[in-house]
Amino acid sequence: MSGRTERVCNSDGVVTIYDTTLRDGAQGENVHFSLPDKLRIVQKLDELGISYIEGGWPGSNPKDLAFFQEVSRLPLRASRIVAFGSTRRAGISVEQDPQIRMLLDAGTGSVAVFGKTWLLHVREILRATPAENLAMIRDTVAFFKARGKEVIYDAEHAFDGYREDPDYALECLAAASEAGADWVVLCDTNGGSLPERIAQLTALARQKVGSRVGIHTHNDSELAVANALAAVQAGATQVQGTVNGYGERTGNCNLISTIANLEIKLGRSALPPGGLSRLQELSRFVDETANLAPNPRAPFVGRCAFAHKGGTHVNAIGKLFRSYEHIEPEAVGNRRRVLVGELSGRSNIAIKARELGLALREDDARTGAALQQIKEMEGKGYEFEAADASFELLLRRRLLPYPPFFQLVEYHVSIRHFPAKEYEVSEATVKLSVRGEAVYTVAEGDGPIHALDRALRGGLERFYPDLARVGLRDYKVRILGPVGGTGAVTRVLVESSDGMTSWTTVGVSTNIVEASWEALVDSIEYWLLRSKRSPVVV
Predict the structure, then answer these.
(1) Is the distance from CB of 452 to CB of 425 less than 8 angstroms?
(2) Residue 508: pLDDT above 80?
(3) Which domains does the chain have, with CATH numbers?
């Protein structure tokens, strides 16, 4: 029944992880970090043991200047903060360049400077000569080395430059190394290279330069992680990237996937012991800090990464997990999930029932009946993958009948609209029976669903006072197909919470109010059932 995460063993040593989420990642669309956000992310990265954290470009904006002042006060244990900038400008000395001075004033022990490798950029963007560009690289690296800094030189467009003029590209790398750069990092800035080309130049750089070699890839061809791994296998010992692959255009190398592959697949050490099992924690922390929804299909750490739905797959993992899993989910802080739906088999139902503490065998007739009911309901538009609470109620109603907490007698919803006043009010009346007692409530709300929810709760809270802690967190409506126009089938998903846990229920109808009512009733009944509430005697 158990799986085993295989780790390839070799003696190639440690791969240094360099995080640029706060600088390169923040250049991605819809990615924004406040100064407190950046400091919190630094602390989380340090907790996991990330070797380098690139904080930003001191000369680019006041927030980055303030960051370097504040981050110097943090008691970091494992991470080195890096200030980022460029080589000196053409036509002036390194000592006269204000950007170089601001980079120095950031006060970090390590600096990263990027310079041009591609003659296209040297001539058309910098408007400099090839010789001047080489001097800019040498001067800048030597300036910081003379002041005791660790220098990480980012060779921008290294692969494009090498394709156009191999000799000049290698001269640029050599210029940085000869000036004392501790690292020469090969950058696939446009993200268009294939792994074979990445490996070729990485191996050549290892031969030609005396500095340690790193890799910085972008994901424009959806190969950033593959390219980083190819570089490591060719001799690179530093990988630059961002958490969750944030970055300009289609993003940077995703450090979450890269670290997992390095440690588990290649047997390289990328984090201190215990760090690997916190990858999902890091991924979600950065998403939440950036106010972005986590990618459910993210490899290794997404909700779907170890979710099994097909009946054949579920039957197999019930016998041997690694039959359909390449690693143990717990290795990266994730967990296994079994889904139920129209593609499910008896194994799905039985395994989910066991997760809920219900004794149900695959060969039990009730298992087949429950499976048939689920398939029929999903054919009508129900969605149980995202509504575990409704699924659990379905099983419990079939397996362990229980007295209802309340029964609906009738409900009515009305909307009064006053165009002249630009005002609208919704009113709902609900008649319930609670253990034989008739209950009638009226409530107004911001829309018919809100009014209905308030009326339902108002009628029940006298009997179940703790229900006041339960509230709606999210409400989603999906029109299932264009057929029927405004009479099309509607699916409603309601997420509720009592402040400690959350759950999701589903309702389906051609009437959006009816679909919402079904989901609302399931939500409350689920909470009452799980908390085993008894009505207060009044």
Answers:
(1) no
(2) yes
(3) 16-289 (3.20.20.70), 307-379 (no CATH), 407-530 (3.30.160.270)
Please, what is the angle between helix 35-48 and helix 279-289, to 10°? Answer: 180
Q: Backbone phi, then psi, for 215, in 5-degree steps?
A: -135, 140
Query: What pLDDT digit, counting tens, does each position of 215-272 carry?
Result: 999 999 999 999 999 999 999 999 999 999 999 999 999 999 999 999 999 999 999 9
Q: What is the DSSP letter of 306?
A: T
206-235 burial, b if ≥16 CB within 10 A, otherwise e?
beebebbbbbbbbbbbebbbbbbbbbbbbb
Burial class (CB in 10 A: 0-12, 13-18, 19+), 262: buried
Question: Which pair of tokens denotes residue 24?
Answer: 């390169």
Place of tokens 């009638």: 440
Non-local CB neighbours of 125 within 8 Å, separated by 6+ positions: 116
Reported pTM: 0.71
The secondary structure of 208-243 as a DSSP string is: H-SSEEEEEEB-TTS-HHHHHHHHHHTT--EEEEBG
Tabulate helix, strand, coil % of the chain (nearest 5): 40, 20, 35
Of 231-240, 444-453, 471-480, the poorest mean pLDDT is in 471-480
- Please give the pLDDT value at position 63: 78
Q: Could you tell me the CA-to-CA distances from 226 to 171, 243, 507 in Å, in that order?
A: 27, 16, 43
* Interatomic CA distance for residues 237 and 221, integer angstroms: 23
Residue 84 has pLDDT above 80, yes or no: yes
| Chain Cα centroid distance, residue 513 | 33
pLDDT in the model for residue 139: 97
